[in-house]
Amino acid sequence: MPKKQPTAAKRARAAAREGEKYTAALRRETGGPAVPVSYSYVPVDDAGDDHVWAHVIEDCPHCPCHAARVCTDALWNKASRPTYTNGARYTEPCPCEETAKIPEPRRLTIAYMGVIKTLDAEYHRHGMLRGHLRVLGYPFRAEPADGSAGRCGMVLTRSKALRTAYDDHGDTWQITTRASVGGRPATITGWWTDTAPEN
User: What pTM does this model have?
Assistant: First the structure.
């Protein structure tokens, strides 16, 4: 580290020792609005335990509360709550996170049991299904361990190798046979038809 450090860098270094993130004072771009600069410190293995390098983190252009990589990679649950330049905690919900809570509609083309269909689906960027695609409308037949049968949907994971399912955004997905019928674990055995008997 250079001997002469800006005040913001010194405060960021002190915050890093406490496991926190420090947001520097506002700086003004030429002809533009004031832009907050976040300083983060990471240890450098070959420079000793007490030596750290400062890295300027790019702030998200769509929200005032997170770094760009947090909103791009949907890492809100791992990010610490930011603070204003006066040290006050930021309490408003992140607009990027709120937008991500709404599933994105997609059209999925899937080949299963020798039949190709195009179905409505939702891509989730938030919550338990983050990164997964959920098929809507319960188009599949599934059987729990007791031998009964019922309708179910399917939750797919992203796959670059398998090409049996793809959506209108160009993403490819891996089919799974695990499902749930009435809250019971079940195995998908085919497509549901209106003539299929329901036990």
Answer: 0.61
